[in-house]
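Protocol step 4 of 6: structure prediction from sequence.
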Amino acid sequence: MCRSASTDKLDGESDDGDMSIEMGRIRAIEKRNRRGSLVVLKDGREFVLEGTNDVDSSLRGIHVDDPRFGRVKVSWEAFERVEFQEVDHSGRSYSDYRPAKHLRGTVTDYDGKTHSGELVFDLDETASWELLNGSRDDVEYIIPFDMVRSIEPRRDNGSALVLTSGAKIILFDGQDVSESNDGVVVVRENGRETYFAWDEVKRVDFE
């Protein structure tokens, strides 16, 4: 499913033949089985549709812009039901986004020592607009670093995150949050760089 506007069409095969329904006419979509979904229209009519990646297990995921987490991608395995609401806006405005800045913060190592300065996270992320990736329960999280308050590696090959929204979540499976992370560089005010392998990092706090 790749639908973002009310005029886009959802396609599928029903008992009455092929159907193509404007998204703006749909109240809810509910997974029935791997072959298809129940589609509920705003006028109360219901159809079971099958046979396309809009409504069956070949669906590539549903992206949700969540103010707590940034963007999440809900896989078919995690998906149960989506209900649509009418709103009077098209999302966050330009003024809702803070200016991009270099990543800064403090690395705490396993000796309890702290090291503060500009950060190079996973040896390639340096700016607040870049994205941290991880997943949990078949849901992929795509979080701007600007929304991350802290990250703490865990011994189960995941990481515990605290976000600026106050939300807390444990993520797995992405390079940013697992033992595949290439480590963190701290650049101090005098330009001195110190590298920390991921297994040396107890916690990273972002400014």
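Step 5 (inspection) to follow. DSSP finds no helices and 18 strands in the chain.
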